[in-house]
Amino acid sequence: MSEVVIMGSEVSQFVADFGKIPLLPDEAAADFDALRLDVFGELNPKDVFETVLAHEIVSHLWSEKRYRRLRDHFVRSKLIDALARQLEPYLSLHIGLLKKVDAYAGYYDDFHRARRLVILWLTKDSQAFKPIDALIKSLGGIVHDAVAHIHGAHISEISAFEALIREAIRSRNQSLADFFKLRGEKKKSLTPFNALGLAGGDPPLEGVLS
Amino acid sequence: MTSHRKRLSNRKNAKRSTGPKTPEGKLRASRNALAHGLSIPISYSQSLTQERQDLARHFQETSRLTPEGALELASSLIAMRRIRQAEGRILTSTFRNTWLLDGAEGLPHALKMLMALKRYRREAGAQFRRSHAYLTNKVG
Asked: Shortest CB distance from B65 goes to which of A5, A21, A69?
């Protein structure tokens, strides 16, 4: 342990402020604080070096989770549009279904009607899912076409998200290695952090291709 | 090929448009090429320089750090904080609404900027590790 740098109150404040990260609108400060408490409880940092590294680990864990979530939202959003485009030409043949599952269908153009159907299908709406699922299955490989379109049109964005996730993992592992090196301990397993639900995230196309 | 008359006309028009005139406009235009600002050294900012000195002094007074080590530590902490702030600025301006990805038209540019932070993060990490080496008398 490197208990040689004592943290004065001003520096403690600096280091505490240093640990704050700007949150996105859909991120809860309580979740971030809970993660920080978990990590600090696990690592129990003793000095400024260890505290800074603990803050870095929290930040990288949060980033990893954040970039996974953003990537998943991005893919889902593009999947909705791509599927809606595939579905749009068939809608006039299934106007009965539309009126049955979507009371607001009359207010939209075909693309946006298709989009609403896809959202109801993806969110597994209790009433609408079965008939829409049957329609999509009857149309053959439109889901695979939509997925192929996403990978063709948005491969650079998806790859960039993947690279950001890898970078967050690499940085977290580096900070953990530095932390345990300072203490003269062997690097510990990442299991406690994985237990916080940070190891993965919902696969972006979960259930879609089943 | 551009005609002589057209060239003259272009030159005449260009003289009328010679950039921002007001101090506010000049200040705004001076930041046109600014992406994340991390390549600007701490020494270019009076407040950051002061903050670095204060932190370094404190570290030196309360530890076995050499003056160089204390300065390295203070610099690395400020660099890490700047990176985090830059990342936050890019993210909050791009992902105002995550589910709808409102503002996602700027997504490729934002992702490129986020990727560019990697270099600065690694540099700051290396600087942080160097500062600890001063403490343990491995350097200097």
From this structure: A5
